[in-house]
Structure formats: C-alpha cells, structure tokens
Amino acid sequence: MRIAIAGLGTVAGGLLALLRESAQNLAVRADCRLELIAVASRTRRDVDLGGAEFTHDVLSLAGRDDVDVIVELMGGEGLALELVERALTAGKSVVTANKAILATHGDRLFALAERHNVALGIEASVAGGIPIIAALTRSLVANSIDRVTGIINGTCNYILSAMSDQGAKFEDALARAQSLGYAEADPRFDVGGVDAAHKLAILTALAFGVPFNKAAVYAEGITAVTPDDITYARELGYCIKQLGISRRTAKGIEMRVHPALIPLDSMLASVSGVMNAVQINDQATGALLFYGPGAGGRATASSVLSDLVSFARGDSVIRRRQSGSAVPLLPIEAVESAAYLRIPVIDQPGVFARIATILSEHGISIEGAIQRERAIADHKVPIVVVTQPVPETAMNKAVAALQALPAVVGTVRRIRVEHAGG
Amino acid sequence: MRIAIAGLGTVAGGLLALLRESAQNLAVRADCRLELIAVASRTRRDVDLGGAEFTHDVLSLAGRDDVDVIVELMGGEGLALELVERALTAGKSVVTANKAILATHGDRLFALAERHNVALGIEASVAGGIPIIAALTRSLVANSIDRVTGIINGTCNYILSAMSDQGAKFEDALARAQSLGYAEADPRFDVGGVDAAHKLAILTALAFGVPFNKAAVYAEGITAVTPDDITYARELGYCIKQLGISRRTAKGIEMRVHPALIPLDSMLASVSGVMNAVQINDQATGALLFYGPGAGGRATASSVLSDLVSFARGDSVIRRRQSGSAVPLLPIEAVESAAYLRIPVIDQPGVFARIATILSEHGISIEGAIQRERAIADHKVPIVVVTQPVPETAMNKAVAALQALPAVVGTVRRIRVEHAGG
User: Does residue B251 have an active-site annotation?
Assistant: First the structure.
C-alpha cells in the first residue's frame, strides 16, 4: 500500500520513525507492507523521509496516481479539510488525526468516503495511542452503550493532578504544564474545554450513532477549581477530574465537558498526569476502561499506523449509520447530576440550617457536608455540601437563592459529581 | 451469516441474550445479520433458543451445510477440541472461548484454520469482555511489545482485594469467593495459577509471535500470601496482586504467573475485586491498559459477538506468524526480579546486619526494609526487606542461606516485586 503524509509536525515525525521500525513486524505479523511515496508540508523540517519525495504543495498529494492513502497530520481546519475532501473525492482512503475537522464535518466526510468507496481512518483523532475508536466501531459495535466517560485532555489532567498531589495552585500548575510542552502558549483550547469537546463529539457520534456535532457539547473549563475544592473533595471521598461525558437517557444524549468530583476508589481517579482514559459503560460488559497516552508523536502515530494496517489488510471499513430514529442531543439544562457546593458564609448561628432549607425547597437532598471550624479573624468559613442528583435547572435556581442570602459573602462554587460505575 | 453454538452454559446463555438484544445494532451500525441455526449440548437447559434447532449431538454441528460458523462454548478439552478440529477441517470458521485448548493446541488450530481458509476467533478466551485480543492482533499488530502484565484471574484478585481491603484471611476470602460463585468448588485451578497460565500463554503467543505453550509458563499460586504480607507491602508503598507477566529480554521471552508487589499508585493496583486488566508496554505508546470484567456470561459473550461481527463484515483473519527467528521461552531461573522477603527471626542484636551481609554476599542490594519492634513474649519478629532486581538463581541461594541462619525461626517468605511502569 502506497501512502503519502501531509504535515511534518510531532505526529508525522513519530509516524516516520514507526514506519521504519515496524516494517518487519508488519511483514511478519500482519502480512502487509507500507510504502511511503511522498511527504508534503508547507515548511520543510530536517526529518529523515526515508527516500520519500518532498513537496511544499500539500494539495498536490490528492492528485497523485502513485498514492493509495493520504495521511493528514497538518491540523487546523482550512487546508487540512480541503486536502481530506479532495483526497476522498479522488478515490483515495484517508487517515486523519484532525479532531477539529471531524467534530464539525465528520458526517459529511464519512459520507464522502462512502460515496467514493474508500476508507476514512480516525483512530488518532481521540486519546492519542489508545485504540478507543477500534473499540467503539469494531469490538463493541454490537453493544448497547449507556455512557462514555473520558479523561481526554492531558493538559487538564496534568494540572489537576499537580494541584491534587503537590497542592499546586492552578496558575503554577499551568505554567509547569507549559514549560513541559503539554499546554499550548494559549492554553484556553485545553483548560477551557474546547479540545475535549472536539474529542467528545467524535466519541459520542461513534458510541450512539448521533451526528458529529461539537456545537452541541456543553464545555466548561477547569480555571475555577481551587486547591481548597480538591481538599474538601478528598475529605468527602472524591477527587476532581476534567471529564468528557456522553450519556444516553430516556430523553436523548447528553454531551458535556466539565470538572467533576469522582469517587477516589474509581479507576478514572487513578489516571494521573498527562495520561488519558476512556470508560465505556454498556449493557453487555458493564464497564470497560481504556488507558494510555493521550498525546505524543509516537503514541499518536501508533494509532495512525493501526488504521493504515487495517486498510492494507482489507478490513471492513467504518461507515456512519444513524441508530434508528433520530435521537436528540440534549442541552445542559436537560442534565441531571449531583453537585458539590462550596458556599462562603459568615459563620453565625443558623446559617447551615438556612442553606439546608433553601436546598430542600428546591427539591435537593444533601448527601454529605463539611462545616469548618469558626474562622477567627473575619468570621468567614466555607460550608461544603454534596447533594443527591438533581435537575440542572433546579440547581441553578437553588444556587441563585443561596447567592442571595445575606450570610453568603462570596461566590457559591459548584462542581458536578459523577458516579460513573466501574 | 449462519451460526451454531456448542454448549449451553453461562457464556452460551449470555450469547443467546446478546444475539436477541443486538440484532438492531448489528443491522444498523455494522451492516450485518447473524442467524442462529442450531444449538448443541450434551444436556438440555431451559433456555430460549429463539427458534434454533437443538441437538445433543455436539459433533454433528461440524457437518451441517446450513452453518457457516461454529461457536464452541463447552469448555473442557476432549470433545471441544474434537469439535473445533472437525469444524475447521470442514471449512467452517470457529469462535471459541476455550483457553485450555488454545494454550496447548493453539498453533495447530490456527494452522488448520489457515489450511482450510477459515477464521479462528479467540477474543473470549482471555479476560472476558475486555477486547485484548483485538488490541494485540489488530490495533497494536505493528508495535514492538516489550511486556504484557495482566490481572487475568478474577478469583485471585477478589481474594487478594478482600484480604487487603477488609483484612480477611486467605481461607475466609476464598470461602466468600466460592459462595459468590467466583471460584470453583475445587479452587486450585484459580488460586494455584493454572487458569492464569493458560491465558498468559495465549497473550504471549499473540504479543511476541512465540508458540502457544502453557507448559512453559512458570505458575505460582497465592495460597501462601498472608494478611501480614499485605500490611508490610503497604507500609513500603506496594500492594500485592496475582499477575501474569510475559516480557521480552535480550535472552528470550519470560512467561510467569505469581503474586507480586506492585506500586500502590500504579493503574494495576487500582484493579480490585473480580475485575481484570491487561497492561501492554510497547515501543510506540509506552503503556496501555485495558480494564473490564474478566468473566461473566454477558461480558464474555460480548467478546464472542465481536468475533462473529468481524467475520460477518469480512475483516481480515488473524493468522499466526512467528516473529523472525525462533525466540526462546525462558525458564523461571532466567528471570531477574526484585523481591520482598519476610524473614521471621529471634530478635537479638546483629540479626539485621547478618541478613544484610548474606544478601550483599549474593550481590543483592536492599531498597527498603521494615524492622518491627521487639516482640515481648517470644522474641520473634519479622524482618521485611525489599531488594533491587537480582537473578532468580542468586535469590534462591540467598534465601537458602538466610533460612540456614540460627536466628531465623520460620520459613523465609519471598514475593517478587514488579515495576511495570504505566
């Protein structure tokens, strides 16, 4: 099988290395041979191309008769999207790690691949080296999935792990992530939840047969999580992770990215640093979890390579199919979840009772609480409450009512609580 | 695709249920339809066969012209092996959950499948519902694997978890596992390491391209692990798990099943109760971990179903290939590993120094140690030592020398220590 690579960044570098190293494994264990014909990139980097032709003209790859598969590793939306469209239209199979174009144009691109009878491989688009796309589209394709819960942004997980393990502040942990090369110079894409929303849109489309629709993902970042929140959470038996969650309910499919308290003894709680993990809850297995590196050139290239091998072996091609009648994608207002509330109050008699009353009036039951000893200087103390699951709208109203209490002397902080099982 | 099932036990029951429930998912998401033609079992159980024919004549399935794939879920070696051989020879593809026949006859059965140009699906043979066979033979087939580390016997993991979490004794935890249906009435197959050895032989053959050879697996059970060992291990930062490990070294491939201390903060340490997990260390991703239910009718049936879907879609077939020149399977004497030693001594001056001297004379460095306070009644105290990695033979000699010390007043207990990374 003859391939061409567009892009010369970290993942392309990893792929070039793996293609060299894996040639023998491929020949012996998979009965296939991958031949690199050409590499295209707007900028030439000093990388060993193993004799392949180099061109600055990225789009020219789509027109080559001596190439069967185009590997798009440029990132970005404009040129990358154009290359993928042209390649598919020209009857070439495509492998892409580009979550941004898939999360928005996934349905159209899969339809284009089907129309031209070629394959579109997207293993590398979510969770780096973890073969989660194969799990969803092959191993578990017959299974009825209830929920996908992922730690799918390594930067957020690194920051929250550093805050949790070393008591670091958010800003310091972010600065360290940046100095280690985990976070972009503009970190909003990661810590604001955008990157995870792209990935969740892809996982959700594959797990539930709904459209690729990143615009329908509710995304909340981790910038407001404090070391205090992490400490209180631990006292209550939880840690805080940035999660991407999609869930099937009687009303439709939830898609949301936000920080969440999860039980300390859950598998997801053990995922630390830049590592990723995706948990699948389904009717046949109960819960499966897939853990590994969510980024990195060689790890992500491993996923690219797995798609290439699958094409070369002639495996069946992933086609997008809607699951029966259209299932609605739900807004965040339709979500029901438990919440952790940190309420800064003036410590005076009866405050806790008033808070409990307000929660009760909104139909919210308390599962656990922490009331700190009296603060000596300013009489300010936080009251921390974990609630039972409650509709989003009821919680919004309750938080507004709490915020209006005269004894509440700062912003009421709210973080969802998730018990994903497994 | 027309299928027949041999066996009517737990997994067959799970498969019958999943075939009913998944029909719509299969049609919509995987473009395929599975038709159950016949079920065979020596004993008839009252299970809904969905209109399929029933027969007591198991071997007759291999001769049916109206069946494309035989699913062997009987277990045992004699009749099951004969059915699989006959079916493959008759040009029918086979799915089997039978680890015992694969761990011994795997090479011959894969060769038979290849000769008759049919497929042999074995996803269900290891780790229940976890798609670990697909990971090794598809997603990671190009990757160069260094190590496979698995918690692949749920009974052992349940017992060690109960000993660790509730301070239970081995016998009590085993009795509870039996009453919950996790352990066989004769538990030696599980707690003695035989079941895990079968599974490890299969994982190793697929990960490293060596023959299926359960006889070459070193297997040690968990019956000698005590609550004290678990307590001391935790003080030193470890927990104790029953692991199956295969590892590539410069000399060949290690295959061993034994209890091991692993770091408390590792992902494998978080796998509790009857759950299973398999960690793959490879040159491209670093470490991946796959977690899920290692047994149970529906979970294991999920893996059977994934093989059936793969056949129905016409995916490439897994063929056995040796990786280049023959790689030796190493005996346990060729293994190098760190050890935890619990040495019961009479507490008298200089004992620790003599122990340290003996270890040093055998080239063994101490990484950590616990020396308990003096026992009041009988002056017996345990000295606990964790060593650096050392060749098995050196450790055997050191343990013999320690055992011969006059101050050592009981059996020196030794458990290997594994730092698998990830």
Answer: no
